[in-house]
């Protein structure tokens, strides 16, 4: 097990914290592989119903550790296509494709690919001191880790272009006003709130939440007719699930529902 990632099993959910605080949790290949393995385990574990992702120290994630991509120490230019295809893109696909909620607690700076990985999570909570930076323009790169797809979806083309091309840091409050962040908390209150939210998700009808996630993601690339057809299919699955039966029964019995997250 790599010491670049802290894994805390909370029973019905798991907390993952990037653990390279001296480098603002910037990604190395070791950290990539550790996080991917942990996310895959969470995704495949029926007893794990939600995931919380955060970082140790004063930052969430500064993106790629540029010390590992220093052109002066390499015989050839770094193969960033390989880096994205092998490391970042699998993480994005895991987070977005996981059939359970993924909460991100941005405890400090989130820059470059670290910023975009956070924004791919299903709910983003931020410390008041957090900063969000599309830092790619500072080193002549394009927003990656799905940034060129995600930013126009969340912000619209004009604001996405301006943010990506200026690399200006934005505050947690601005990120919330722009619709990038769900809620902002005082620094000392962030993790307690994030853990409470993840616990609440873990007790919720997570099978239906996973289908909701799937449907909302599909809406970005489908027309209305296709989306209506998808809704019908997914709602059919939801209506046959244990969670739907339990939710309706609990409502009629005036008791708290005991969801299982099972289809």
Total beta strands: 10
Give the rounded overall mean pLDDT.
96
Q: What does the oligomeric state look like here?
A: single chain
- The CATH class designation of the largest domain is Alpha Beta
Task: Report helical residue fraction.
Answer: 40-55%
CATH superfamily of the largest domain: 2-enoyl-CoA Hydratase, Chain A, domain 1
Low-confidence stretches: none
Terminal Cα span: 32 Å
| Class per helix and strand makeup | alpha/beta
> Nearest-angstrom radius of gyration?
19 Å
Q: Which sequence of SSEs, written as H and E, runs from N to C?
A: EEHEEHEEHEEHHEHEHHHH
Write the CATH fold name of the largest domain. Answer: 2-enoyl-CoA Hydratase, Chain A, domain 1
The percent range for strand residues is: 15-25%
Number of helices: 10
Taken from the alpha-carbon principal axes, the silhouette is globular
Account of the protein in words:
The chain has 263 residues and is α/β, with parallel strands linked by helices. The protein folds into two domains: 5-202, 2-enoyl-CoA Hydratase, Chain A, domain 1 (Alpha-Beta Complex); 206-253, Orthogonal Bundle (Lyase 2-enoyl-coa Hydratase, Chain  A, domain 2). The chain has ten helices and ten strands. It has helices spanning 29-44, 80-97, 113-120, 147-155, 157-166, 172-177, 190-202, 206-218, 224-239, 242-253; strands at 5-9, 13-18, 50-55, 59-61, 102-106, 109-111, 123-127, 131-133, 170-171, 183-185. It has a six-stranded mixed beta sheet with strand order 1-2-3-5-7-10, sandwiched between helices. Strands 4-6-8-9 form a four-stranded mixed beta sheet. Strand 2 (13-18), helix 1 (29-44) and strand 3 (50-55) form a beta-alpha-beta unit. Helix 1 (29-44) packs parallel to helix 2 and helix 4 (147-155) crosses helix 5. The relative contact order is 0.12.
């Amino acid at each position: 097990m790599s010491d670049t990632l802290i894994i805390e099993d909370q029973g019905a959910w798991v907390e993952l914290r990037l653990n390279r605080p001296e480098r603002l949790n910037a990604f190395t290949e070791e950290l990539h592989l550790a996080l991917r393995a942990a996310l895959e385990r969470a995704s495949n574990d029926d007893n794990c119903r939600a995931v919380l992702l955060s970082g140790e120290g004063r930052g969430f994630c500064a993106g790629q550790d540029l010390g590992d991509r220093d052109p002066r120490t390499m015989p050839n230019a770094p193969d960033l296509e390989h880096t994205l295809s092998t490391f970042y893109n699998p993480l994005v696909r895991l987070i977005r494709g996981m059939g359970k909620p993924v909460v991100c607690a941005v405890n400090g700076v989130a820059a470059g690919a670290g910023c975009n990985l956070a924004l791919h999570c299903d709910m983003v909570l931020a410390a008041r001191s957090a900063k969000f930076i599309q830092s790619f323009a500072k080193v002549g790169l394009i927003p990656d880790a799905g940034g060129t797809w995600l930013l126009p979806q969340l912000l619209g083309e004009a604001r996405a272009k301006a943010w990506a091309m200026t690399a200006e840091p934005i505050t947690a409050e601005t990120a919330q006003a722009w619709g990038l962040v769900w809620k902002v908390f005082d620094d000392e209150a962030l993790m307690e709130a994030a853990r409470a939210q993840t616990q609440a998700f873990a007790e919720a009808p997570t099978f239906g939440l996973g289908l909701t996630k799937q449907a909302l993601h599909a809406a970005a690339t489908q027309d209305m007719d296709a989306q209506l057809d998808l809704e019908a299919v997914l709602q059919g699955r939801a209506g046959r699930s244990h969670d739907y039966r339990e939710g309706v029964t609990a409502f009629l019995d005036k008791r708290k529902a005991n969801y299982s997250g099972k289809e």
